[in-house]
Design brief:
The protein is an alpha+beta fold. The protein folds into three domains: 40 residues; 107 residues, Elongation Factor Tu (Ef-tu), domain 3 (Beta Barrel), CATH 2.40.30; 71 residues, OB fold (Dihydrolipoamide Acetyltransferase, E2P) (Beta Barrel), CATH 2.40.50.100. It is built from three helices and 15 strands. It is elongated. The mean pLDDT is 80. One of its GO terms (cellular component) is membrane. This is LcnD-like C-terminal domain-containing protein. Keywords: Membrane, Transmembrane, Transmembrane helix. InterPro entries: LcnD_C, MFP, Single_hybrid_motif. Its main location: membrane.
Length: 233
């Protein structure tokens, strides 16, 4: 026959019920609920930036002198190399036209020589082919930005720009949008319509970046509450 016990007789059960939970469990629960409260507060009050991403290429504000082939012919003697500093009137190279005329091409301005492509003596050149450019030394630089047409909608003059040129600097590479093209152009490489923009480069290392170097860019166009972003998921 089964015996019915009084609750007072179950001493182990009474001790178990009266025993306080271990202190580490109490602290764990406090930490858990505290973290949850902070997270909820952050989600309800915090904001995230809305950005449009694209590419940037460093340009020179001063006018660059571009040297093109004026006739079909053959490259003769090249007397300068990429990166050389030349003065106005310095001899750059000799060119033999298809009419067997030997032409001396001289610098129209002083600056740093940048060849458009690898060119050697004896290379065949076509009329209008870009051979090299002379970039003024020490002039201010800016960034030419390229963004897809779908990413241009909310961008306006004065928006903040973040650059990433993979340079050695640990500082933020920042700038400001100063120009937005009115119409897009078709990019043959991307096979999409893109917009050209211009922006300042407001960081110390900007002047050390070589002309023509490219990098990534993000433009901050606004912000929105974190909770709205989470609802999309």
């Amino acid at each position: 026959m089964n015996r019915i016990y009084d609750f007072e007789e179950l001493t182990d059960s009474v001790e178990l019920l009266n025993r306080k939970p271990p202190r580490f469990i109490i602290w764990f629960l406090i930490f858990l609920f505290g973290s949850l409260a902070i997270s909820l507060f952050w989600i309800c009050t915090g904001e995230i930036n809305i950005v449009s991403n694209g590419t940037a290429i460093v340009k020179n504000k001063s006018e660059t002198s571009i040297i093109r082939s004026q006739n079909d012919g053959v490259m003769g003697d090249i007397v300068i190399t990429n990166g050389d500093f030349v003065k106005k009137g310095d001899l750059l190279f000799r060119f033999k036209s298809n009419k067997s005329e030997e032409i001396e091409v001289k610098a129209k301005a002083e600056g740093i020589v940048q060849f458009s492509d690898t060119i050697q003596d004896g290379d065949i050149l076509k009329i209008g082919q870009e051979i090299l450019s002379i970039v003024p030394k020490g002039s201010a630089k800016y960034a030419q930005l390229t963004l897809l047409a779908k990413d241009i909608k909310d961008i306006k003059l004065g928006d903040k720009v973040n650059y990433s040129f993979n340079s050695d600097t640990t500082n933020e590479e920042l700038g400001t949008v100063t120009y937005i093209a009115a119409q897009p152009i078709f990019d043959k490489d991307l096979k999409e319509y893109v917009y050209r923009l211009e922006a300042t480069m407001d960081f110390k290392e900007a002047q050390e970046l070589p002309i023509g170097i490219s990098g990534k860019v993000s433009i901050i166009t606004g912000s929105k509450p974190i909770w709205k972003s989470l609802l999309k998921f």
